[in-house]
Design a protein that fits this description.
152 residues, mainly beta, five-stranded antiparallel beta sheet
Length: 152
């Protein structure tokens, strides 16, 4: 019984009590990525893409350990992050449909690497928007949403 409780507790951040892992996005245009959770730790690199989705893998005080779609990451101050959900299109010329149905009309096609705002999701589809276009895309073609995640 204790093993189950410990497993459930470890799936939540000790600071925010939010699920770990979870997705967030870059609030700032630029954010230092540090080797550890404090200003005294070395900056390993800088994320330079506002709205880029990131996966939170750990929390410590005001710091969140994050990684991008390539697995690169480190510790970022929480003030640089936003709860606004975005995704990266992982398939070139991804067809975005009027409804979560591949036979429904195509509203637009998004290029590989486009960062789109994430809306509602079913088990297999998510509603996304970018550049004034919106529609439904297969979840399997997006990075920044959990495979089993359903959003309303």
């Amino acid at each position: 019984m204790h093993a189950v409780a410990a497993q459930a507790a470890s799936d939540r951040g000790p600071v925010t009590n939010l699920p770990i892992p979870r997705y967030v996005s870059m609030k700032a245009n630029e954010g230092n990525v540090r080797r550890g959770p404090s200003l005294t730790h070395r900056i390993d690199w800088v994320f330079k893409r506002r709205d880029m989705p990131l996966q939170v893998t750990a929390e410590h005080g005001h710091w969140r350990r994050v990684q991008d779609r390539d697995g690169a990451g480190g510790w970022v101050h929480y003030a640089l992050l936003s709860g606004v959900r975005t995704v990266i299109v992982e398939k070139d010329m991804l067809k975005v449909h009027a409804r979560p149905d591949p036979s429904s009309p195509v509203n637009a096609a998004f290029e590989l690497g486009v960062v789109a705002r994430l809306g509602e999701c079913t088990l297999d589809w998510c509603r996304i928007s970018a550049g004034g276009h919106r529609g439904w895309a297969p979840k399997s073609s997006l990075w920044g949403v959990m495979p089993d995640e359903v959003r309303e």
